[in-house]
Amino acid sequence: MAEPAVLERPTGWAGRVITLAARQRELTLAGLIVVLAALVALQAPQLLSSSNLAQVTAQASIIGIAAVGQTLVILTRNVDLSVESTIGLVAFVVAEVLAQRMLEPAAAIAFGVGLGLVLGVANGVLVALLNVPSIVATLGTLSIYRGIDFLLAGGKQVTLTDLPPGYTDAARATVVGIPLFFLVAVAIIAAFAVILRQTTFGRQLYAVGSNPEAAAILGIRSRLIVFVAFALCGMLAGVAGVLWGIEFGTINATAATGVVLQVVAACVVGGVNIFGGSGTVVGAGLGALFLGFISNALILLRLSQFWLQAIYGIVILVAVSIDALVTRRLARSTTVRRSFVGAAAAGRARR
Amino acid sequence: MTDVLAGPALAGSAAAPRLALRGVSKRFGATQALDDVSLELRAGEVHALVGENGAGKSTLVKILAGVYQPDSGTVHLDGRSVEITSPGLARNLGIAVVHQEPRLFPDLTVAENVFLGHTPTGRLGSVDWGAMRRATVDRLRELDVRLDPGAQVRGLSMADQQLIEIVKALTLDARVLILDEPTASLSVHEVDRLFAIVRRLRDRGVAVLFVSHRLDEVFDLCDRATVFRDGRLVATEATAELTTADLIRHMVGRAVELFPRGEHPVGDVVLEVEDLSRAGVFDGITFSVRAGEIVGLAGLVGAGRTEVARVLFGIDRPDRGVIRIGGAPVEFGSPAAAMRGGIAYVPEDRHQDGLVLDFPIAANVSLPILSRLFRGWFLRPATERALADEYARELQVRMRGVDQLVAALSGGNQQKVVLAKWLATKPRVLILDEPTRGIDIGAKVEVHRIVSELAASGLAIILISSDLPEVLAMSDRILVLHEGRLTAEIARAEATEERVMYAATGQDRGGALPLAGSAHG
Amino acid sequence: MTAAVARLARWEILLGLVLLALLGVGQAMSAVFLTPRNVANLTAALIEVAIMALPLALIVIAGEIDLSVESMVGLACALLGFLWAAGVPLEAGIPIVLVVGALGGLLNGVLVTGFGLPSLVVTIGTLALFRGLALVVLGPQGVSGFPDAFTTFGFGTVPGTPIPWPALVFLPLAVILGVVLHATWIGRQIYAVGKNASAARFSGVRVLRLKLALFVLSGTIAALAGVILTARFASARADVGQGMTLTVVTVVLLGGVNIFGGRGTIPGVVLAALTLAVLGNVLRLGNVSAEIQSIAIGALLVVSVVIPNLAHQVQALYRRVRGGRHLPAGAVGTG
């Protein structure tokens, strides 16, 4: 056997392939998006038209921004089901204050983002402070936030004509030919990629999700980390809500109903491990883009839009199954390497 | 990053030992885990800590790691008295513990695991990945370890994960390195690599405490050895002046009150096991148990005893081999199937696997036989109570009644409920895994009496125990496992603690007969 | 178990008192509140939710969760409409729908027990999948024109009584599942699995098979609820049942079922369903729209977990002050 290069990792080829695939999840997904787009474009060249791309990226950007927030929460082994209600509520409130001319557009946008933050903080309090399991807490707030939305809207809707002239133009605005929404999403993803990778908070977020016991031994304050993750998730849902309002113009109390499934699907297809501790915001963003192109492909190929929801479900199930298999496989390769004496503990871990 | 070699903390002083324990005691309920222990650890030595399971080694490690506080006594570091109140403080004091099971973050990289908790940051407080990587590369190179600092920890071998723990200790400029059974899960080659690294650290002045079951390693690596027995320090001597025989003599010889068990007749073979193997766990196990016989299964923790029991009880599947009950070959795919085959298993971890603590006694006793007891599907509380009451009385469970929650009982009485539950299944083979662990002396003697009576009534019993006097007193025959293989089968009349311990630690010694099964693999 | 019984009894008594208070408020607000007709309305409004809450209670007691039930309602409804529109008589259509419900539950169960995936994520996935299939089957259109006998079953009452027909599905089901949970050894095994799955397994309980069966039951009952809903609305649409999961989970947790498994009773769940139905009715009398009622439901859901949690924390704090053990370090939820 040839002498391995210095620092070569002494694992089998299978381990290397799996690790490579896992590490290159973003690249794999990006490749998949290109292939999908190319295949569809062969049948429907209008996919590549700038107006179509603008539309695809606008919606993918909104989902992607919400998915960034969801990623933060999932990394800590939690989930936030309330994002769609936050998006809907923020979209309506911003539209309403604009329609009533209560605030200038810039102030209204800031207000919307702040409202999202407040809603996220409420989730954080329930989960991190009051120990309510995140699924229960956010299922509750999913309905509470939506209820508030109905309370405020009372059955009416804000239409395009109520809004300040030019406000919704931002939806189709471009900067050097690139759609504005897309740039916003890329900026947010980049910012959070840096936060997750380069700050102590970011690394602790991964640590808490990866091994809570070991994190506690290191003195990491898990509760605080979980709280901040929920707060940021709410804030980013607020951003998504503002963009939603700009994109659709006409907003009623049911805006963004059912969107949480797309957001979760974007995360898991982007490689964010539902068991916590692993995944990137870039992956989640690409996941949103991937789902956006699938949706667009259905339209362009004149296939039934109704498959979309089913596809989201399948995507979630397949991605989660793959993640679980890979995780288990890697864990097993560790276990089998042990000789006899470690087996007691290994047996316990298998249980 | 200061160099490990140059750190001022490592300049050992000749006067004071690097680490000293003076009169340290620790008690858990009825158990005196550590009793007035005084121990010195010098800079630049590798100090072995040996003793039977439960001798108090891990309690000592946990006190030094800041997990437990001693009830009395003091700890001194370089002559200064210290109170290690948390794992974080232990780290800051320069005491690094490498556990048998590394506590790493599987999703993070090698370098990050090394540095988490004291991550190097650059401008604006951002994580300095370059510095982290370079420092890790340096440390790995110093130790001559080939590991990619950018590799994800999930999927690395136990050996590599332990090395990461050691590298982590190095970056903290650890003055005291505690290795808690580090070789337990390593191959021969990996052990050699680890030892080379430990020697290098020793030469740099690190004080190393090496906890191990493997006596050959103690002689191979360590300068001095301390033997614990029943929470007491029995001896500290230079290994050069010790023999294996001395060590074993120090380790054994506990004075324990036991239930006296006389000779009695045994019946036909009930359980036969032939060439039973499970990859990486145990190999080529062959033995049989007769009706009315108690067969002791001795060995160190992790020798594969519980794993054999798990296969017999249908929890894990064997890779090879045959199990026969009453002469007929059986294959168990689940505990339910094993139960139907007449096997009962009193598990090692009473709270996790043995009992539903939040259930009353009656519901625990009836749990394995619900479908048999209530053929019409409907529970009949009176029937259930009567059954539980019968067994609880027979085993003299001290309780207010069978409606009492199991959680409210003492450890010994809880264990009797586990026994009652399995006796209610009317088994032919009863496997007891550490049946007296953590229960008080009185209850222990009672459990021994019960087990003895059960054998006399014709049950075939396998007794797994780390308590040597118990195994010797109770068993008609003793099988000794070492690293997944049977290394000895000793008849009651010939069994001594020394002989069992020799076989359990894998020492060759006349009298402990090598078995046919050990030729495999 | 006396302590546990006492605790649950307290919870159920509390719930009973809340129910009585709500009835009093309702009566004060409207003279017709307790008339047979209004009682019939009151029960009909929440009957499907109550039906679905029964199997879900068993699943949660066994330590799992099923969020996909609302989409199974939609799928059942859409499929029934599709089959009817295609000329399949209801005598054949309804059994087919129930079988599909069982298969959907089987899919959940296999993914959870066979693949070892967390039920939370699996059922979020099938929440999307089943709804998607409903849309694929029926598309945006609605199907109506069901036979009178069928729709009468949906919104009619048993002649001479104020009892709506669907209540005749709910009551026997509640009794059967209540008896199974509280009076048979299967129920005992469900509690054992929820309290300590490992000890249950070591005691010969077929944990995975039991969980699988519960998911199949949940899927089937959800499909049944979908059929009832179709009858009550006299039409089939693919978007039926959206948001129902929230109410179903709320009923289960409000009924005293512990989200971490091992605790809860069917009488508690029935009581919670009644409470929620009466609350909805009272709110409607106060001119609060259905959408806004969801605030109350969501708040109830959260509160029904927060209150026992807080009580537990206070207890733990009290023990710690008295020199007991440390509180668990991690604040990481189970989500």
User: How far apart are the termini of chain B?
Assistant: 46 Å
Spatial sequence of strands, sheet with the most strands of chain C: 1-2
The span between the termini of chain C is 29 Å
How many DSSP E strands of chain B?
A: 20
- Residue windows where pLDDT falls under 50 for at least 5 positions of chain C: 323-335
Overall average residue pLDDT of chain C:
88
Mean of all residue-level pLDDT scores of chain B: 86
Please tell me what the overall shape of chain B is: globular
Q: What would you report as the Rg of chain B, rounded to the nearest angstrom?
A: 25 Å
The total count of helices of chain C amounts to 14
Q: Give the total of beta strands of chain C.
A: 2
The number of helical segments of chain B is: 18
Largest interface: A-C, 64 and 58 residues
Unreliable segments of 5+ consecutive residues of chain B: 1-13, 509-521
Structural class of chain B: alpha/beta
How much is the radius of gyration of chain C in Å?
21 Å
State the share of residues found in helices of chain B, binned by percent.
Answer: 25-40%
Q: Name the overall outline of chain C.
A: globular
Biggest sheet record of chain B: 6 strands, mixed
- What characterizes the major β-sheet of chain C? 2 strands, antiparallel
